[in-house]
Design a protein that fits this description.
It is a single chain. The chain is α+β, with helices and mostly antiparallel strands. The chain is 18% helix and 31% strand. The strands form four sheets. It has a seven-stranded antiparallel sheet with strand order 1-2-10-13-12-11-9. A two-stranded antiparallel ribbon has the order 3-4. Strands 5-6 form a two-stranded antiparallel ribbon. The longest helix is centred in the C-terminal third of the chain and has 17 residues, at 161-177.
Length: 236
């Protein structure tokens, strides 16, 4: 179980568990009592690719495909593919013997390119030493669903009796007020949450639900905020 270091309203901290929700199993492919086996076969050799056919037969080689089968290499097509390795090709089709350089592309809100740069090393700002902080900024649940796109939800779980009281108190507070709490990362608690090195920054929104002695405390993560377009964009 992964751990999360977190503070409450009184800025008291504790380390609790983070549950991973398992998705429902996908439909099983195949017949009752029989397993479905996927196999891969070679569909074309290099001589049957478009560029090779153009060199051999010219641009208008459609009729040649009808009259015969020049795109099929009987030595290779139909062979079963076993273990395979991934290779990278240049724009000219040549094999690259070194992995390509990764470039980070920064996009403006309108979809245009703003900047290209080498990827930066990003450190996690929620660690064993730095907790996710209770900021005190409360947002009504009805407003959260109108302002944020919630991309992931992580249930938090107590690991002993003390952390049960710790999390239950947070969940009851939020449940009674029908609000969510904005959680902050970093030493100041004013940054988005980055839970793993080189991870995406997220706004963290804590939701609590209580039923008697039972509780559930959910950390919703969002990396997209919903905003109304400017007046000029509305007219366009």
């Amino acid at each position: 179980m992964r751990k999360l270091h977190i503070t409450n309203e009184k800025q008291r901290d504790a380390t609790v568990g983070m549950l991973t929700l398992k998705p429902d199993p996908t439909p099983h492919m195949g017949l009752p009592g029989a397993e479905l086996d996927y196999r891969r076969y070679i569909a074309a050799a290099e001589s049957g690719l478009h560029d090779s056919l153009v060199k051999a037969l010219g641009e208008e080689y459609g009729q040649a495909l009808v009259d015969g089968d020049p795109e099929i290499d009987m030595e290779y097509v139909g062979r079963r593919i076993g273990r395979s390795d991934r290779i990278y090709l240049s724009h000219g089709g040549k094999v690259l013997h070194h992995a390509p350089e990764v470039v980070e592309l920064i996009i403006n809100p309108d979809g245009s390119e703003r900047e290209r740069r080498a990827p930066k090393e990003v450190l996690a700002n929620v660690t064993e030493e730095i907790p996710a902080r209770w900021t005190g900024k409360r947002i009504k649940k009805r407003d959260v669903v109108r302002r944020f796109v919630l991309t992931r939800t992580v249930p938090l779980q107590h690991v002993d009796g003390l952390t049960y009281d710790f999390l239950y108190g947070m969940a009851k507070d939020l449940h009674d007020s029908d609000e969510m709490m904005l959680m902050g990362g970093g030493e100041s608690g004013k940054q988005p949450l980055i839970l793993i090195p080189n991870g995406s920054p997220y706004r963290g929104l804590l939701e609590g639900r209580v039923d008697g002695e039972r509780y559930i405390l959910l950390l919703h993560l969002s990396n997209m905020e919903l905003k109304l377009p400017a007046e000029g964009e509305k007219k366009a």
